[in-house]
């Protein structure tokens, strides 16, 4: 097996690198999706109360 693959797949540090990378990518996608969902819920709630949604 290629030495770089051995370092990444056969050593704990490699698994930590893979896990950390996936977590950073997940945060990069998750935070904007969470913000959009909260804004959508806030706009729906404001619509039910008859208010205009706040602009930021």
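^ Assign residues to that structure.
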């Amino acid at each position: 097996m290629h030495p770089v693959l051995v370092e990444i797949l056969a050593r704990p540090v490699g698994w930590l690198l893979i896990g950390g990378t996936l977590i950073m990518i997940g945060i990069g996608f998750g935070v904007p999706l969470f913000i959009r969902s909260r804004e959508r819920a806030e706009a729906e709630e404001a619509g039910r109360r008859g208010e205009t949604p706040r602009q930021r």
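DSSP finds two helices and no strands in the chain.
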